[in-house]
Amino acid sequence: MKVKIQETHLTGIAISQGIAIGIPFFFAVIEDSIPEKHVPEEALEGEIDRFRKAVNRCRLDIQKLQAQLEMENAIEAVAILDTHIHIMSDPLLNENVEQEIRNRRKNADFIFKELSLRYQEKFKAMPDAFFRERVLDLQDIGRRIIAYLCEQQHVSLSEIPEGSIVFSRDLAASDVAEVKGSAVLAFVTETGGATSHAAIVAKAKGIPYIASVDFGLIEQVTPEMAIVDGNKGVIILNPAISTLEMYEGRKQEQNQFYHALEKTSFLQPETVDGHQMRLSANIEMVNEIEMVHRYGAGGVGLFRSEYLFLSQQDFPSEEEQFAIYKSIVKKMNGLPIVIRTFDVGGDKLMPQQQASYKRNPYLGCRAIRFLLQEKEIFKTQLRAILRASIYGNVKIMFPMVIGISELLEAKKMVEESKQELKKSGKKVPEKIKIGCMIEVPSAAVVADLLAQECDFLSIGTNDLVQYTLAADRGNQSSSVQYLPTHPAVIRLIKLVVTHANRFGIPVAVCGEIAADPKFTPLLMGLGISELSVTSRSLPIIKNAIRNVSILEVSQLADRILTLKTPEEVEECLLAYPNSII
Ligand code: PEP
Ligand code: MG
Question: What pLDDT, on a 0 to 100 scale, did the predictor assign at position 87?
Answer without folding.
Answer: 79
